[in-house]
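for the recovery benchmark. C-alpha cells below, seq after
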C-alpha cells in the first residue's frame, strides 16, 4: 500500500481554522478537472487507494515548482531561470487571460462529496467546487490524508509503506542490515531499500544501500511496535 511521506507543516492552521493533521500522508495528485461541474481527477499513489475513500476530508497543498523553474534575483514572478534574454521586457504586464484559472496558492481543506475509481484514476466531487475553472485551479495540487483515517489492513501480513520507513532490519543472527528508507514496487513484489548501517562501507561500484525483497520467503517478522524487521538475509548478499 503506497503512500508518500508527510510534508513539513507542523503547527499549520488553514484559513478556515482547521489544523493541518500532524500525521498527514501524501496519497495522490490532482491531474485535471473532470466534467464541467467542478469535478476533479486524481492520480493515486497506491494501486489500492482506500485511503482516499476512508475520509471526507482531503488536505491539499499547491503543486511543487517544476524542476529548473527558479526565479532569477530581481526577476518578476513567473520569470524562470534560463529564459531567453533576447526577448525584450515589457514595460507593463500583459492582462491576465481570464480563461486561465489561478492555481492553488496555499494549503486548504477539501470536503469530499463523492469519490470513485474510474480506470487508473480517481474522480471526485468537492463541496463548494461547482465549475470547471475552480477544478482546474487545483491541477497539480498534492492531496494528503490523515494517517489515523487509513483503514485497517485486512491481515497481519499487510502494511502501509509509510509505516515501514525508518524500521531497522536485522537478520536471523541479529546482524544489522540497515534502515528502511524507501520501497520499490517491481510488480510481482516490493523490495525494501535499506541504508547501510553506520560503519559498513558499500562494496566497490555498489550503492550505499541494501535491497531486500519484501516477501515471506525472506521476511520472518515485522514488528511496528519494536520498529524492527527480521529477515533471512546475509551481510554478503
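predicted aa per position
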Amino acid at each position: 500500500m503506497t503512500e508518500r511521506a508527510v510534508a513539513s507543516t507542523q503547527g499549520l492552521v488553514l484559513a478556515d481554522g482547521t489544523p493541518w493533521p500532524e500525521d498527514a500522508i501524501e496519497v495522490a495528485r490532482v491531474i485535471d478537472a473532470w466534467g464541467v461541474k467542478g469535478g476533479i481527477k486524481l492520480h493515486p499513489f497506491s494501486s489500492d487507494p482506500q485511503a482516499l475513500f476512508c475520509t471526507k476530508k482531503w488536505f491539499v497543498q499547491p503543486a511543487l515548482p517544476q524542476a529548473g523553474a527558479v526565479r532569477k534575483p530581481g526577476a518578476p514572478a513567473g520569470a524562470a531561470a534560463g529564459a531567453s534574454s533576447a526577448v525584450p521586457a515589457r514595460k507593463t504586464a500583459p492582462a491576465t487571460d481570464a480563461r486561465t484559472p489561478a492555481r492553488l496558492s496555499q494549503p486548504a481543506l477539501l470536503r469530499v462529496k463523492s469519490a470513485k475509481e474510474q480506470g487508473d484514476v480517481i474522480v471526485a466531487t468537492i463541496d463548494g467546487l461547482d465549475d470547471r475553472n475552480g477544478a482546474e485551479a487545483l491541477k497539480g495540487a498534492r492531496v494528503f490524508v490523515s494517517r489515523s483515517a487509513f483503514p485497517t489492513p485486512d491481515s497481519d501480513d499487510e502494511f502501509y509503506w509509510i509505516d515501514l520507513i525508518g524500521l531497522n532490519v536485522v537478520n536471523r543472527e541479529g546482524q544489522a542490515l540497515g534502515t528502511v528508507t524507501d520501497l520499490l514496487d517491481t510488480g510481482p513484489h516490493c523490495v525494501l531499500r535499506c541504508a547501510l548501517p553506520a560503519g559498513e562501507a558499500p562494496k566497490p561500484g555498489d550503492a550505499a544501500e541494501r535491497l531486500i525483497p519484501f516477501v515471506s520467503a525472506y521476511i520472518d517478522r515485522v514488528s511496528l511496535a519494536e520498529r524492527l524487521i527480521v529477515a533471512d538475509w546475509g551481510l554478503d548478499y
